[in-house]
Sequence to fold (592 residues):
Amino acid sequence: MKVKEKDVQHVAALANLELTAEESMRMLQDLNAVLDHIDMLNEVDTANVAPMAFVAADITALRSDETRASLPRDEALSNAPEAGMADGRRAFFKVPKVIER
Amino acid sequence: MATATRIPPEVLARYEPVIGLEVHVQLLTASKIFCGCSTSFGAPPNSNVCPVCLGLPGALPVLNRKAVEFAALAALALGCQVRETSSFARKNYFYPDLPKGYQISQYDQPLAEHGAIEITSGEGRKKVGITRLHLEEDAGKSLHDGFAESATSTCLDLNRAGTPLAEIVSEPEISSPDEAFEYLTRLKEIILFTGVSDCNMEEGSLRCDANVSVRRKGAKEFGAKVEVKNVNSFRFIREALAYEIERQVEALESGEKVVQETRLYHAAEGKTFSMRSKEQAHDYRYFPDPDLQPLVVDAAWQAEIRKQLPELPEALRARLVAQYGITEYDAGVLSASRSLAQQFEAAARSAKNPKRVANLVQSELMGRLKARDLSIEQSPITMRGVAMSADLAEAGTISSKMLKDLYDHAFATGEDFAAVYEREKPQQLSDASAIEKVIEDVMAANPQQVEQYRAGKTTVKAFFVGQVMKATKGQANPAMVNELLDKKLAG
Fold:
């Protein structure tokens, strides 16, 4: 399986990446190299093998519906580059104006 | 409401709308779906957050058992089959209120499938299929306005991030805005009966997106589909759909193409507007979430959940009609909520004559509520009050006229029946000798009627009852009047 330049552009757009023509070419080569490598798996005959999505043959753990202490807000916001204020305190994560892409 | 146009009905009639609805309901768990943060509404911003729901590196989700049970209960109430094995997937998209950059949802193996809701459509009934019901996490809240810096930045409150949601997807089998309204009404009613969500649209615990396309009647192919978002009441959804259908028909009639896109409804203008996002289909690149193993709800657990299934609105209404002899309309009013129906039934059961309670609700309560534009939940007279009045009437302690007066009084003052009765309690005449005295006077004044009665025309008794009540200003105990009259008239 090979990807084309337009596939790279599509994936870049989905990842919010702007690639220069040069970077785009390099990505194309890198991606195709990865895909070539993965293609080796196609040599295995999987006609009689059920599809597998999860490696561990286990079922999910469940927890009971009990609340636990959340992070103190200052701590939750401590890595935020900017915070919005409420009642004179840091209260919100602040991000550049959201514009729907 | 503003409509798109001016499209003649005969033109509209050549087209057939195809509508599918996606409804999200927040599940009433105490903690979030994948972490122990509280789900309480209205908490100070960013006070219910932790590494898991903030999407901090290395944090791992652990599924809330109750969220599974609630979603499965809703699924069973909607006639869905719950899958023994379902799985979680990542839905990838970028938006600041989605801290991980993906939403944990379910994709190819949803929790439940193949349900249906029966709705009224015109004169008839029809079933609208439910494709699937799956579990997912809610996103946080973006606050775009109201801050000094709102022109250049957006504030995020991530308290809601990670609140459990059940997404309920209908088949594209809804063919009119009215049917969409009806579907949503029935869906909400069923979910409310299960108690898994409060379905409060103002607080966002029930949200709905609509997919709508139109096609020539009889066509096999679907038209290009438009997703309508941002609609926060069932009435607005009906209006948005009506607008959108006309807009699409108009486009097709004038030879244009309908663009597949997402549109927002602006209720004030009654119109939908294109979000003008890039014209590419969503590409969410779903893949199985490696952090969560498959969810198994085996037969034993399903049976346990099924046991919690309450009597559903449809069945309840049928039973109320059969058991209390009330109309379907009144059964509908009394089943507006599970708690109201329970109150009614408790009142009916506690009363000496359950049917009388039903009759009073029907004949005395409903009309007064309607005249004042009150819902039954707002009624000053509670079900307990109705039961009390029914017992008093049954025992003959109050006449039907007094009962009506007391109801009027209760509605005028906003008090329950018991309070009004205690205060306004008619000075009832229950003194046998006094009543006998009145009866004797009445008989003396109407010798002709006494004769008629004694000659066998016993229907004249009603005349005497009326006269006695009149003489006592309606205050004589009706049961005693009856009894004493029988005795006296017999001679």
The longest helix of chain A spans residues 21-39. The helical segments of chain A are 5-14, 21-39, 73-76. The CA atoms of residues 54 and 60 of chain A lie 11 Å apart. The two ends of chain A are 30 Å apart (CA to CA).
